[in-house]
Every structure is written in structure tokens, then in C-alpha cells.
Amino acid sequence: MFFARPVIATVLLLAGTLLMASCASRSEQSGLEEIEEVIGLLEESFIDSDRANRELLTHAAIEGIIDYLDEPYTSYLTSSHFDHFNEQLRGDRGNFEGIGAEVIERDGQVMILGPLAGSPADQAGLRPGDIVLEVDGRSLEGINLFDAVNLIRGPKDSEVILHILRAGDPTPFDVPVVRDTIELISVFSRIHEPGVGYIRVDSFDAEAARLFKEAIERLTEQGARGLVLDLRNNAGGLVDAAVSVVSEFVQSGRVFIWQELDGEETPWDVTGSGTAYDLPLVVLVNSFSASASEIVAGAIQDNGRGVVVGTTTFGKGSVNVLNDLESGAGLYVTIARWLTPSGWLIEGNGIQPDVVVGTGFNVQAAQRVSALARTLCAAYNQEREELQDLESFAMALEDLCGLRSVPVPASEGDAQLATAVAELRKQIG
Known about the structure:
Elements: E1 2-4, H1 16-22, H2 26-45, H3 54-69, E2 75-77, H4 79-90, E3 95-98, E4 101-106, E5 109-115, H5 120-123, E6 131-135, E7 138-139, H6 145-152, E8 159-165, E9 173-178, E10 180-183, E11 187-193, E12 196-201, H7 208-221, E13 226-230, E14 237-238, H8 239-247, E15 254-260, E16 265-269, E17 281-285, H9 292-302, E18 307-310, E19 318-324, E20 330-339, E21 355-356, H10 363-382, H11 384-387, H12 391-401, H13 415-428
Parallel strand pairs: 12-13, 13-17, 17-18, 18-21
Antiparallel strand pairs: 1-14, 1-19, 2-20, 3-10, 4-5, 5-6, 6-7, 6-8, 8-9, 11-12, 15-16, 15-20, 19-20
Helix pairs in contact: 2-3, 7-8, 8-9, 10-12
């Protein structure tokens, strides 16, 4: 089973027995025997026995291997996290109580990929790209994403305080959010205006392909003469679901190219079982459209099947395989890269829209700016008296260090959607 979704944690690797089975040489075997010996000695004699139990030490060793690889999408999932991840991808997510925001791990930090429309997170003013530093005063440093999500979730009508770092702001701030019941639906559709159908795909789970086909049929029956496909803030999901969505619009051709780490390439083509080959199409993307979303947008663009509107996408173009371990845990491994049909490398580049609307969000650059601002503020606070002689510099730093962002409600206007509709009108007349 292959996935195209930003991984949900960077921790741990193989179980010891699986590692032993996969080793080929005597030197590798002896290395593993040495690790086992060290764990045994610590378990027997380390003064803090609570920290030196075999499970924790094994996980720490695995975490060290993952850290050494320094690859953001290779990770280990405990058995409970593995089961939850599979439930999400099967589409068994149902309803839950929480704030209604999808989060990912980025450079060891918990980032909000996007609040669901109308959710408590949306109403509280949380934005894509916000970093969650603390939950109810508890730091998320060193906590994996699944455990962070469990801290954020909670019963309906209860309040959670998120300590947020926003790009460009030197000082984090608190955002109170009142939890509610969140209904998760991977595909949402409506008639946006006469003749214009709108389909939003929030996740490419196992139900997305079926729901998407049904949405097209329903909208065309209601008079839609063209479609806007909204993939903004979509983190990805199953590759097969992405192929099915592209296949609804492209009768023959390539969806993407699978590039092995040794450079060998394998093309993946459409299924030939679509229903909307002649239906005018515009695809909406933004800086938080990732992975499977980028496969879809790139395939539609390269096949000349529709217009892509928005901002440059996230740039997650790695092929990941989720392996079942004998222990019941899972190992998520990056094994290849995605290329668009024309050969464009998605990883690190993203998909460039045909029509740019809005300002893109460079996650890494924004984080560096925020880190620099915090460093300057810390230096200013430590050397305040010495810097008073540089009056203008001191005043500027004092203004900077005093900044606080006030979360703003989502705007009722949507320039990207308006532009998408205008582009669609050009096609349908």
C-alpha cells in the first residue's frame, strides 16, 4: 500500500527482530548484538530503572537511527498510532470531538496545515502554517504528533489553550479554542452558482474516489457545466485515490512518474474509466496542498486538462510505503520520488499554478524569520541598558519585541475561488 501524505511523526524505526532478520553481514550482526548487550546492562544496573526499561531503550535506539537518516518522511508508528493512521486512510474517521484542524509535523514542530471550514479552529482564527508550541501550558517539544493530537482533542464544549508561533511574529501568543463535535467528510460538493459545480477534497482516503465520482454525477444532474476542484490545505492520502480523481477527467495519458532512488522511472497512467472527460475544469491549490494533491494538480496541468489557480504548492513529492511490523507497529519509509507527467520534480519544488492568486507561504523561510526575530528580542532584553545609546535601534527592537498577533476570523471573501470561477466561465462561455 502506497501513501502520498506528509508523514505524521519523525520517530523510531524497526523492531529488533526485524532488524536482525534484515542484516546480511557479520559486522552488522555484531553491531546489533552490542546494542542488545548495552540495553541489557542498562536494564539490569542503571540507577533510574523507570527510564531504563527495555521498551523505552529500544525506542530510543530506533529514534537515533531515524535521526541519523535525516529524512522527514521516514518514521516509526507505535501499534496504537499505526491502527489510528490506517483508520484515517480507510475513511473510518467518522466524528470526533476536538478543534477541527489538520496538523502535520514539520522540522520537529507541530504545524497546522489548515483548519476545517467553520470549525472551532477556524472561528478562533488559527491559520495554515501556525506552529503549536504548547497545549494547555504543556510543551510539545519531544512529543510525537499522535500524542500532540491527543492533547489537542477533548470533549465538546471544553476549552484548550494553544500557544502559537505565527510566521513573522517574534513572540508566541495564546489562542483559546472551545472544542466541538467535528464531522469528517473527505469530499464536499455544491452548486456554487448557476452552471458552476464546486468540489472540495479534504483528504484522499479510501472513500474519496467513490464520493468524488458521485459528486460529479450529482452536480452535472443539477446543471453544472464546469467544475472547480478545490485542493487547498489538502495534505494528500492514498495514491490510488489520486489516480482515480485524475482519471475522471483524463481519458488517456500519464498521472505521474515514479522515480526510484537509483534514477529508474516507472510511469503510472489513468484508468480509462472516467466520466467527465469533456467537462471544463479549474483546480484550486495553495501552499498547503501537498503530496497526492500535487499529483492531481500536476497531472491535470501537464495533460492540458484544466487550469490550476492559486499559489505554489507544498512540495512534498516522496513515495512512502507503510510496512506492518511483527510487533503491530508500522514503519513508514521513503522509497522514491514523484514526478509530474512532464518530468517535473515535485519534492522541494511544488506545482506552479497557471494563474497566481495570493501570496505563497514558504514554511522554512517563515520559520527562520521568526527564529531570528526571537533571537534579536532575547539579545535586546539582555543588553537593554547598553543599547539605549543607539536610540533608534533600541526603539525599533522594542516595537518588534512588543508585537502580538491577534487571530483574525476567516474572511468572507475568497479571491482565489472568485478567480477560479472566472477562469471556468472562460471555458464554458
